[in-house]
Amino acid sequence: MYDTIILGAGASGLFLGDLLKKNYLIIEHNTEIGKKIKVSGGGKCNITNKVLSPKNYDGDNKFIRKTFEKFNNKDLLNFLKRNNLKVFKKKKNQYFFESSEVLLNYFKKNVKNVLLNTQILGIEKNKILTSKGEFKAKNIVVATGGVSFKKLGASNIGYKIAENLGHNIKILKPALVGFTVQKQEEWFKKLSGISFLADIKVGEYSYKDNVLFSHRGITGPAILNASLRWNRGKIVIDFLAGKNMFYFLKNPNKQISTQLPLPKRFVKEFLDVLGVVDKKIKFLTKEEKEKLKLFNNYEFAPAGTFGFEKAEVTKGGVNTDEIDEFMRSKFSPNIFFIGEVLDVTGELGGYNFQWAFSSAFSAFLFLSR
Q1: Which residues, 6 or more positions from 96, have their beta carbon under 8 angstroms from its beta carbon?
Q2: What's the rounded Cα separation, in Å, for the pair 97 and 87?
Q3: Residues in Cβ contact with 293 at an 8 Å cutoff, skipping those fewer than 6 apart
Q4: CATH number for the domain including 57?
Q5: Is residue 90 one of the residues assigned to a domain?
Q6: 135-175 pLDDT, tens per residue?
Q7: Is residue 50 domain-shared with residue 10, that is, in the same domain?
Q8: Where are the beta strands (DSSP E) in 133-225?
Q9: Pairing of strands 217-219, 179-180
Q10: What is residue 143's three-state secondary structure?
Q11: Which pLDDT value is given to residue 15?
Q12: Average pLDDT in the 58-68 region?
């Protein structure tokens, strides 16, 4: 009989195991720990962000705020510093490791009780059913993550466990993912490979960052963040990232495409879509100038997303109304849910790792009593 069994050897499960130190077991269905850690942040693991607020997340603000009151970005950075895990602050206030192996090696050294390559079949009271037999524990922590990145071994077992306990699962959707396009935006695909700074608005949210056109539609950091807030309907793109279109059209004897701070290939394609000939600015009609305003305010409704296979995270999950401040199930007080399996999803920039560690720490506060 273990004090605690943790299901999942991702960031949240490994961190909790490291905090608990003794009489715990981590059960993981993959053949190695932290597969998602390995590829995050381009292999450098963007661990957290200097700016941290519930506003950076899709989920219940009150629940998220209470969690960060127990363990926030400063607490995480202090933890890393105490353990000689050096991080670097890069653009947009993100903190990275030199390599994700820095964090993985720390966990490999300090988290010893891990049973790999073991399928989790379900839970019966204080008993875990697996492909390698039954295991008993006083407390069980579900840290199995979401269903995105299936090639990294993503599984829906955490949601099944929650449902069997009577929990409601908020609808699962791909998030931090690119958009596919409808027929009207097929021209996006002709621009595959082109990237530049833009401003994306979706509802009350706005993201200024790079967009990237692809053979499937449109992606890039600004689009990935927008996908977190998008359900259905239109989004708005300012291709000039806040700079007024007519600010650049001051020289009447210059061609439109030579005056805009955008890739010429994009400008020419977009002008064609607008039905405006690329000509000297002095020859523009009033009607054509009106059309050019769409460089600052182009609306389109995505057809959908690139799906869970390309999504960095899963939006939705276990309803946090049914979870207490220590991540315990309100229906089964010996069962805890942490990390991505919960209905809390962060923007790009280290926010999802921060949530993994913060939610694990909240569970630790109760489990260590």
Answers
A1: 41, 44, 45, 46, 47, 87, 88, 89, 90
A2: 5
A3: 245
A4: 3.50.50.60
A5: yes
A6: 999 999 999 999 998 778 889 999 999 999 999 999 999 99
A7: yes
A8: 133-142, 169-175, 179-180, 195-202, 205-214, 217-219
A9: antiparallel
A10: coil
A11: 98
A12: 98
Q: What percent of the chain has pLDDT over 90?
A: 95
On whether both 64 and 155 belong to a single domain, the answer is: yes
- Burial of residue 115 (number of CB atoms within 10 Å: 0-12, 13-18, 19+): middle
Residues 160 and 193 in one domain: no
For residues 241 and 295, the answer to whether their CB atoms sit within 8 Å is no
pLDDT digits (tens, 9 = 90+) for 328-358: 999 999 999 999 999 999 999 999 999 999 9
Lookup: tokens for 207: 């993201």
Q: Using only C-alpha atoms, what is the Rg of the chain?
A: 24
Residue 364 has pLDDT above 80, yes or no: yes
| Cα gap 218→231, rounded to integer Å | 16
Over residues 106-128, the pLDDT tens digits come to: 999 999 999 999 999 999 989 99
- The domain of 290 spans 179-305
Give me 278's structure tokens.
């690329």
State the Cα–Cα distance between residues 154 and 144, nearest whole angstrom. Answer: 8
Average of per-residue pLDDT values in the chain: 96
Q: How far apart are CA 12 and CA 33, in angstroms?
A: 11
Give alpha helix (H) positions in 59-100: 61-70, 73-82
Is residue 259, in this structure, part of any structural domain at all?
yes
Token couple for 63: 């629940």
